[in-house]
Every structure is written in structure tokens, then in C-alpha cells.
């Protein structure tokens, strides 16, 4: 299927490393993992993400279930986390810092960095208005990228709030209606409904036209500006470099005030503040801030060799019962073991042990079975010795600690 991709064993190690690194980092900042369904009511995304966004208008996998209700495979994580926060009354609990890892779905044209099923790691912090929390979200991203040896540029912007955006929307309409013929069909439809979305359009003609549009920074209210200035002050305190990009608006309608992206040649991670989302979804007036990163995009540029972690390979020359006995001994000693059950030549098995990066191969055949012995082969030095089974523990310690 177009846009859906298998993750094969040779790359799974990178996925595991990314997820484990992010999980450990987020939990070290007090975030707790939450898991929500991949299917939600369509209305959640229409209300939360925005019905004039590309995601809702063109990219969602939406269908009727057997009861006739419209449901959607989640295209992003924040709306579902916000719903769970409301429905499970988490505002009265200690769990106001949440993170998630999982698949998302968007019907986009498949290309490098864009799949129809993709995976995100994200985090949300609810109920804290302090700009230091926005900076902490960025700081978490910075530390994660450093741990993964990934370089990216931080771009930030202030996109205002429902109080100050109407005046800006009017200014955009006044500008774009004089350039309507230069806009794509989608942006022409959005012009009077949600002109801010034109600034996020990927069409080249729209991008060129948008360069001359009024800038939001000239319209933001005092509260938004104070919060944004506070975030910048916190980023300066953390020595985090950033570039202000006044064309950065994000593709989701729930954002308010501070937004950011970490960019290489494409956006790797992004997020910002959303102070009205919980209320818009029927909850109390609780603010929020968060981010989401694209796992596939990071994995594509992670410069880390994916290695197997098999320590010991059992080359079984037709004595499976004896090989199982040795496997049990080794597992009781907590070793990582690959046991071969398909009778092959010793040469082919040792080649496989090399490919698995095994440090030691234990070779057993009829002779070893009769004598209650095994051959321990040091794969790095190509040396080997015959030992009794009761010598396995001491022999392996000597071989493994010496390599």
C-alpha cells in the first residue's frame, strides 16, 4: 500500500534507541506515558485541529463505523491527549505532564519524509501558563537531539490568540483579495474563512504571494507579546539559539502565542502553546503546551549503526535436544543467545554468527553430545577449545571479559 511501510529488523534497533532515549529523557523531566486509541470521533479533530486546515479538509482517514458514527484514524496526537485529559479528569490528578509514542495517519502524497502512516513522539504539559514551561519543552527537544547527535535549527514565532488574531485576519483578507488570482484553489476557498492558513500553504505561488503579506507581530496583543518575550528570555537563559521566523504559523488551528519548529532540511519536531484547546473541547479553561516529533524523519538522519546484540550463537549440528539444554544453561546465566535449529554446514553457521555480531559460538554435534562437552569458539580471535558443560560459566566469563 502506498505510504505504508514495513520496519525491518535491521532498522528496528534505531527505532528502539530513539524511543528509549526519548522515554528516559521525558520521564527524567517528570512526564508520564499515556496511551490513547488510534481511532477517535471525527468531531474531535474538526473542533480541535480546525475544520479549515489541510489535515481536516484533505488528509484524514475518515469513515462511518457500523453504528453510522463518523470516526477518524488520528492524524496527530494532541487532540486525543486533550480529550483523555478532560474525560479522565486528570486536572485533579498529579498527571499534568504526559507523553506518547505511536502511529498517526494522514492521506498525503507519499514522498521522502511523508508517509500515510507515520509515527510521533510527543509531550503535553497542562495547566501551567509560565513561559518557562514553553522553554522547557524546547529544552527537552534540544537535549534529545544532542543525545542522538542530530543538528537542527530552532525557529520560533508568536502567532497571537483569538483576541488579537481577528484584526490580523482582516488585514490578511485585505491583502490577499488583491492577489487572489495568484493563490491556489484551496487558498482561494480559505481566504474569507481562515486566511492565516494561506501562510502555511506549500504551493510555490502562494509562498511568493505571502511574502508581501502583513506580519502578525504587528497585531499581537499585550498578553501574547509578554508571554512570547518571556519564552525568549528563558531560551536565552538556557543558552538555546533561535531564529525568529514571522512566517511560521504551524498547520493546526489550536496554537496560541509561542510556536516553534526544529528544522534541518525539513521540519523534524514542532510544537507550541495552545491555551484554548481544552475549553474548545468542552473542558475547563486550562492552558497547555507541547510538541511532537516525526520518528521516521529522525531515524532517516540518525548516524548510528544498527547492530545486533547477540552475545552467543549455538551452532547445532543435528543435536537439537542437547542444544536446547545448553540454551537453558546460558539463559539461566542471563546471556543473549541465538540457537540454530536448522541443520546446516558448520561453515554457513559460523558465517551467520559473524553477521549476528556474536562474540562466542558454541558448537555441538554428536561427539559433544556423547561426551557431555561443547566447543567454545572465540569469534574475534578465531580460536576455540573443548570444555565440559559444567565449565561453561567460567569459560564464557574468561572469553567475554577478555574481548
From TrEMBL:
Aminoacyl-transfer RNA synthetases class-II family profile domain sequence ranges: 1-302
Q: Which GO terms describe its molecular function?
A: ATP binding; histidine-tRNA ligase activity
Question: What GO CC annotations are associated with the protein?
Answer: cytoplasm
Q: Which domain of life is it from?
A: Bacteria
Look at the named UniProt entry and state the broad enzyme category this protein falls under.
ligase
Localization recorded for this chain is: Cytoplasm
Keywords, sorted A to Z: Aminoacyl-tRNA synthetase, ATP-binding, Cytoplasm, Ligase, Nucleotide-binding, Protein biosynthesis
* Residues annotated for L-histidine binding in this entry: 76-78, 106, 120, 124, 250, 254-255
Give the catalytic activity. Answer: tRNA(His) + L-histidine + ATP = L-histidyl-tRNA(His) + AMP + diphosphate + H(+)
An example GO BP is: histidyl-tRNA aminoacylation
Q: What is its EC number?
A: 6.1.1.21
Q: Which InterPro entries match?
A: aa-tRNA-synth_II, aa-tRNA-synth_II/BPL/LPL, Anticodon-bd, Anticodon-bd_dom_sf, His-tRNA-ligase, HisRS-like_core, HisRS/HisZ
Which HAMAP family does this chain map to? Answer: His_tRNA_synth (MF_00127)
Whom does it interact with, and what assembly results? Homodimer.
The family line of this record is: Belongs to the class-II aminoacyl-tRNA synthetase family.
- Protein name per Swiss-Prot or TrEMBL: Histidine--tRNA ligase
